[in-house]
Amino acid sequence: PGWNPNPQSPLLGIAKDILKRQNNGREPGVKAIHAGLECGLLMKKLGGPVDALSFGPTITGAHSPDESILTDTVPPFYQ
Questions:
Q1: For site-directed labelling of 20, which of 7, 27, 37, 55 has its Cα 20 to 30 A away?
Q2: Residues contacting residue 40 through CB under 8 Å, at least 6 positions apart
């Protein structure tokens, strides 16, 4: 199941603040994209209003033989 992003999400604000600190003050990019299936599944299973984020490094060619990751986008997500 899909899920609708909440740009006013308190959880999003916290995540942005943390990533900004870890990224030397650089504002993190926030996008609503066709991904994050797990969030939709968890939200459906938990029922009711649930705040959720799907985040991570930049991946290209997802779910194909050409799938790759831009390695310089990884560090903020494992520190």
A1: 37
A2: 1, 2, 3
Location of structure tokens 């999400």: 9
Global pTM value: 0.73
Are the beta carbons of 31 and 20 closer than 8 angstroms? no
44-79 confidence digits (pLDDT tens): 899 878 888 888 888 999 889 999 999 998 987 876
Report how far residue 2's alpha carbon sits from residue 65's, in angstroms, rounded to the nearest whole number.
25
Return d(Cα 48, Cα 32) in angstroms, integer: 21
User: Do 1 and 40 contact (CB within 8 A), yes or no?
Assistant: yes
Q: How far apart are CA 29 and CA 34, in angstroms?
A: 15
